[in-house]
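Handout, tutorial session.
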Amino acid sequence: MTAVDLVAGASVHEWEELVDEFGDYLTYNRQFAPLTVRNYTTDVAPFGDYLEKRCIDSFEDIDRLIIRGYLAWLLEIGYVKASVSRKLSSLRSFYAFMKERGLVQRDETDLVSAPKSASKLPPIANEGGIQALLEAPSATTDTGVRDRAILELAYACGLRVSEIAVLDVGDTDLEQRQVRVTGKGSKDRVTVMGVPAVAAVTRYLDRVRVGIAKESQPAMFLNRGGTRLSQRSIQKLVKKYALIAGLDLDFSTHTIRHSFATHLLDGGADLRVVQELLGHASPQTTQIYTHISTASARKAYLSAHPRAKRDG
């Protein structure tokens, strides 16, 4: 059966033929790759099962309530929210195809929202893990001295990897213990660093950078050739030292940033101060760290308070 045969109006009983036509449409009209076509057609398949289960014969009978019921059914039978959201997106594409071919008049897929996934808390390391990370680089090699300075600065200031990579020597004021950071959207902010970070950066500048930097090179962190260290190289060295320190395999520069924010809040810092230091435009973005801090406080309370586990 072809789309021409179905132009008078699609029937749910022709489900398999419709899905085949949808696959052909994605292949020849949209020029999608075979794997993408398979993903789309696989995603819409459960909708046919649901319609049959509900004894729905006509697409014109399908409204937003039925589609919402379908999404609820998917969750009930074990699909995770991300999968359900993807299936809704594929269903919208399926309806777009059917409307383009004149097979349906009614389409309420855009009136239904995908299920919201729970906010995933960013990974963090405890203070002991961060300490192990900072001590992982060798103090006897030029590379180790440079890398210790990068790690100390990243944790002291909560820097993104992109912010570390674009940092110039002129952006740091070691006497005032301040760093001018160029963040997202080329927005500048000033953050501060502690004594260990100042010591590590000073050691790097005096012992390592001075020997490899060309006179016109402004970049703070350099590779062996005397040019600016790339984001990728910074990410790789963080992964390397995280492995040495025994931290999680998914540890990254962003984990250092998350840990910086959480440790500040655990230590009593005001949320708006942390927001400024991170360079967040909105306090809502920083708010997620309060959940982590609260979780840490709860864990500490339950393990330490003498009456935390008593019934009465």
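The second record follows below. Compare its token runs with those of the first.
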Amino acid sequence: MKKYSLSSKILSCFFVLLSLVWVFPIWEVIINSLKSNDYVKLEPFALPNSETFVGFANYVKGLTFGNYPFLKSVGYSLFITVVSVVLILLCCSMAAWYIARVQSTASKVFYYLCLFSMIVPFQMVMFTLTSTAKDLSLNTPWTIPIVYLGFGAGLAIFMFVGFVKGLPLEIEEAAVIDGCGPIQTFFQVILPMLKPTMISVGILELMWVWNDYLLPYLVLDITEYRTIPIHVQYLKGSYGTVDLGATMAIIMMAILPIIIVYLFCQKHIIKGVAAGAVKG
């Protein structure tokens, strides 16, 4: 029977406590989404009881609250997220394959520029981005995925390049001998082998785009287009009053899909990150 040292037990206890700290805010959102607004303010940490419990009334109210439909915000968030992630996966995997296989000065410069973009704070470029997006007509839900492609390319290309460098070059040479061109080689040979990193990058970018508040707020016309994070901000009644119960219900509906996706795919994230980090 395997024995654990004292240090291992201490570390296990530490990480369990740390996990509880991270989970606690989600727990607070759940319990407060089931309580009436007054008790959310008075007893935010108390469990719902017979006096404070309102069931799913907050969820119904959140769906119908205000003059901007919540389902419309869901539609915009879903469209922006799916299109952005697909663009990032497709474009960045192709770029990474080129960078890994074409050892030229231009490809190296492009690669290091992508890495540099990962360390530049968004706050440094957000004001310039607003005017640039407006000038280039990138300030609609149908075009903002291009902006997300630019900001998400750094991490995606970094992970894809690390994985592609570990792939045997002989497989591509065999495909060329069989008559495959570059496009056929990529889609029929390289892309299937990129599946672990594809899943990892896809999930990470999915969580980022779905939960992002600042970029849509700066770029989109929020009177006409609102994603879910922006919708939550405007859950206000007359004189600026906020129904915290309905707000918690909306937040719960917003984070639940991402939590489910992450729980089912977390093992792929670990595998893909490890593969992209150690290969090459």
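Points raised in discussion: Residues 276-280 have pLDDT under 50 and may be disordered.
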